[in-house]
Write a structure and sequence with these properties.
The protein has one domain. 31% of the residues lie in helices and 29% in strands. It is built from seven helices and ten strands. A seven-stranded antiparallel beta sheet has the order 3-4-5-9-8-7-6, with helices on one face. Strand 7 and strand 8 form a beta hairpin. Helix 3 runs parallel beside helix 5. The longest helix is centred in the C-terminal third of the chain and has 14 residues. The chain is globular, with a radius of gyration of 17 Å.
């Protein structure tokens, strides 16, 4: 019975369903993550150097810098995907710092993979840092879009498949510069400013 429920909810997370918002709003952040990482049937539609992954319907790759990609959703929200092939190659545990003022922090593990969800408030928005499967997605959204952003992010991260032969060759040739250049959404100098984070990025 549980398996059937997981299958149904995973299908909703992977597809553009008109009732998707209703179902997501009835799940906790933790439920969304745990259901998704237990999904074993993985589809991919984006191929890159040493890895591939599934990009959900309604998303495009707006910038491709190898191991760093900028994804744009159909509601004009930018998601920053960072692939850490060095940590994958050496099987290093992804590290994070947890602050008592974080809006939400949750660590999770599935088989030999660990991850975390970190949500912090930024004026009227929420900054989401979601890490799993040796990759990180960062995005800033309104509170009403938190569950949707988490569901999209964990679907992408869980779908990543690595090509060991390509990665080993790149690391052997020291072709890992882009893997060590991480997108970081800049923080506003004035924390009390009413501008959102994307406006600061456009000014740079």
């Amino acid at each position: 019975m549980y398996k059937k429920i997981v299958t149904i909810i995973c299908a909703l997370l992977l597809t553009a369903c008109t009732n998707q918002t209703y179902y997501l709003n009835n799940l906790t952040y933790e439920d969304i993550i745990n259901i998704s990482i237990n999904e074993t049937e993985k589809t991919t539609n984006i191929n890159n150097k040493g890895y591939k992954y599934y990009l959900p319907t309604g998303f495009i790759v707006s910038k491709d810098n190898g191991y760093n990609q900028e994804l744009l959703s159909d509601d004009n929200v930018r998601y920053y995907l960072n692939i850490d092939i060095v940590s994958y190659y050496y099987k290093n545990r992804m590290q994070s710092t947890h602050d008592i003022n974080d809006y939400r922090y949750y660590e999770f593990e599935y088989k030999d993979k660990t991850g975390y969800l970190k949500i912090t408030e930024n004026n009227d928005n929420f900054f989401v840092e979601l890490c799993y499967n040796y990759a990180i997605i960062e995005v800033e959204v309104k509170g009403s879009n938190l569950r949707y952003a988490i569901s999209r992010g964990i679907v992408i991260l869980n779908s990543i498949q690595y090509n060991d032969l390509v990665i080993e060759k790149n690391i052997g040739n020291n072709d890992i510069d882009s893997a060590e250049t991480i997108y970081k959404i800049p923080e506003p100098k004035d924390k009390d400013s009413s501008k959102n984070i994307l406006e600061y990025m456009e000014e740079e």
